């Protein structure tokens, strides 16, 4: 009977060791769970970024309006026959603020 109790205690200690310290322990599961949450958050950010880029690509492929707007805003291009006018604020002018 003492041998059986000794074997059961040894088995119990071995299982507790594996639960708390060994591979697949509770601390490792918690750490991997946190890492999984971080990876899911990154994945959602990348999915949103990809959808924005996809929309931009579709706009550029389907119409000249987006292409023209990008050329005007980013490159400062104008159409033939247009006159470019740049307004420079005076020294006392307040910066343009958007209404909330």
Features:
100 residues, mainly alpha, 0% strand, rod-shaped
Number of strands: 0
Distance from N terminus to C terminus (CA atoms, Å) equals 81 Å
* Count of alpha/pi helices: 3
Secondary-structure element order, N to C: HHH
Gross morphology is rod-shaped
Kindly describe this structure:
The protein has 100 residues and is an all-alpha fold. It has one domain (2-75). Helices cover 68% and strands 0% of the residues. The longest helix has 37 residues, at 26-62. The mean pLDDT is 83.
Write the layout of secondary structure elements.
Elements: H1 2-20, H2 26-62, H3 64-75
Helix pairs in contact: 2-3
Summarize it.
It contains 3 helices and no strands.
